[in-house]
Amino acid sequence: MTDTRHEADVAFIKALAELLRENDLTELQVKREYGEDDSLNVRVSRVSPALAAAPIQMAVPAAPVAAAAAPAAPTAAPAAIEDPAAHPGAVTSPMVGTIYLQAEPGAAPFVSVGASVSEGDTLLIVEAMKTMNHIHAPRAGTVKRILVGDGDAVEFGTPLVIIE
Fold it and tell me: What pLDDT, in 10s, does the model give residues 114-134?
């Protein structure tokens, strides 16, 4: 019985991967319930070629303008610093979802630029599949930039906030 379910689970996962590819999706997450205390949680994700190439495409147009004003070597460092995902203080999204900067409409935002945060403080919420996931500060510091807006859709790995 276990081997049969294992084979069925493998076929199910392969079908999800095929569905991901055919529909050009970046992520699928499914929970399959077998009984009261028995379930299978599956998350299949990939980086689409368009998403993988996007940071490169954004950085390339800036390089020729900077190259005219300065030598090539110094222009590489500012391009890397301007990419929020490469910033050492970037807090990235752990999932695909919708951003909420406050607990409820009309409430004060969790954080603002210039605010001091402690490790574990809630920075914002990512709603995924009707579940509100609080994103906590991984370390103490000062919020230097908030890179997303209320109601924005985000992908896995999208930079959300920069803490220094």
Answer: 999 999 999 999 998 888 999
For the chain, residues classed under CATH 2.40.50.100 are: 88-164
Report the candidate in 45, 43, 51 with the shortest Cα–Cα distance to residue 85: 51
Please work out, in degrees rounded to the nearest 5, the angle formed at the alpha carbon of residue 164 by the alpha carbons of 108 and 147: 55
The tokens for 131 are 């579940």
Return the closest-CA partner of residue 19 out of 46, 53, 39.
46
- Give pLDDT tens digits for 2-24: 677 778 778 878 887 888 778 77
End-to-end CA distance of the chain: 53
pTM above 0.70, yes or no: no
CA dist., res. 110 & res. 115, Å (int): 10
Q: Is 55 exposed, middle or buried (0-12, 13-18, 19+ CB in 10 A)?
A: middle
Q: Which residue has the tokens 């999932």?
A: 95
CA distance 101 to 105: 9
88-164 CATH fold: OB fold (Dihydrolipoamide Acetyltransferase, E2P) (2.40.50)
Return the residue matching tokens 């076929």. Answer: 11
State the angle between helix axes of 72-82 and 49-69 in degrees (0 to 180), rounded to the nearest 10.
140
